[in-house]
C-alpha cells in the first residue's frame, strides 16, 4: 500500500483544530473551527476522493480519539467517509493505549518500532494506508521518508498560531506536484497533491546578470 498524508492546512501551514473550536486545544490553542466557514460541496468532493483510495488508516493516539468520538455516530449508509472509517482496518500508534480502549473496531494498536511497523503495513495488499490529522505522527513519518504522497486542502485563512504541518526543524524536502489533481476550487481553497522528489536536500540556484540579461543558474 502507498502511505498518504491527507490534511487541511491554513495559508500559514497550521493544521490544528480545523473542524471545531474544541477539537484540539492543546498548547492553549483557541482558534479552532477555522475551516468550517470555507467548507463547500467542492471541498467535500475532494475529501471523498481521498477516502475512495483508502484501504486502511493509520492514526496517532490523539486523532484516533477525536475521530473515533465522532464518526461512529454518523450512521447514514451513503456517507462514504463514515463507511470507510467505521469498517476498514485502523492502526493507532501508542505505547499506552490498551486494546480495550481502542474500541473503534477494527483497530490494532502498534506498540513496536514505528518505522518497522509502518514498513510492514506498506507491504500489505491494497491501494492506500491513509493518515488523517495525527500531527506528531506525520512529523515522524516525514523524517523517516515513509510518506509516498501528500494531499492538502489549503484554506484562505491565516490562523497565526498552532501546530504546523512542517514546523521549524523539519527535514528539508522537494516535492513534485501532481498536476491533474491540483487546482483552485471555487471559493479560493487550493487542492494540492504532492509527491516527495527528494528528502534531506533542497535544489537551489541564483539569479545573475549575463551580458545585460537576467539569467537563472541552477546549482
From TrEMBL:
Ranges for domain Bacterial bifunctional deaminase-reductase C-terminal: 4-173
Transmembrane stretches, start-end: none
Source organism (scientific name): Micromonospora avicenniae
GO aspect biological process, one term: riboflavin biosynthetic process
Cited Pfam families: RibD_C
One function term, GO molecular function aspect: 5-amino-6-(5-phosphoribosylamino)uracil reductase activity
This protein's name: Dihydrofolate reductase
SUPFAM superfamilies reported in the protein's UniProt record: Dihydrofolate reductase-like
Record InterPro entries: DHFR-like_dom_sf, RibDG_C, Riboflavin_Biosynth_HTPR
Domain of life of the organism encoding this protein: Bacteria
Amino acid at each position: 500500500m502507498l502511505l498518504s498524508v491527507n490534511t487541511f492546512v491554513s495559508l500559514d501551514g497550521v493544521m490544528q483544530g480545523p473542524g471545531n473550536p474544541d477539537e484540539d486545544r492543546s498548547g492553549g490553542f483557541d482558534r479552532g473551527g477555522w475551516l468550517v466557514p470555507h467548507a463547500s460541496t467542492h471541498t467535500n468532493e475532494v475529501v471523498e476522493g481521498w477516502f475512495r483510495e483508502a484501504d486502511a488508516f493509520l492514526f496517532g493516539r490523539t486523532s484516533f480519539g477525536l475521530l473515533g468520538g465522532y464518526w461512529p455516530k454518523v450512521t447514514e449508509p451513503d456517507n462514504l467517509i463514515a463507511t470507510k472509517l467505521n469498517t476498514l482496518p485502523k492502526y493507532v500508534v501508542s505505547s499506552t493505549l490498551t486494546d480495550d480502549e481502542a474500541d473503534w473496531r477494527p483497530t490494532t494498536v502498534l506498540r513496536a518500532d514505528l518505522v518497522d511497523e509502518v514498513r510492514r503495513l506498506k507491504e500489505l495488499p491494497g491501494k492506500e494506508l491513509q493518515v488523517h490529522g495525527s500531527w506528531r505522527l506525520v512529523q515522524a513519518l516525514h523524517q523517516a521518508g515513509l510518506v509516498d504522497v501528500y494531499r492538502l486542502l489549503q484554506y484562505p485563512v491565516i490562523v497565526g498560531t498552532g501546530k504546523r504541518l512542517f514546523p521549524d526543524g523539519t527535514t528539508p524536502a522537494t516535492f513534485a506536484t501532481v498536476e491533474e489533481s491540483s487546482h483552485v476550487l471555487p471559493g479560493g481553497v487550493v487542492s494540492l497533491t504532492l509527491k516527495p522528489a527528494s528528502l534531506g536536500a533542497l535544489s537551489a540556484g541564483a539569479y545573475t546578470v549575463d551580458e545585460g540579461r537576467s539569467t537563472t543558474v541552477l546549482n
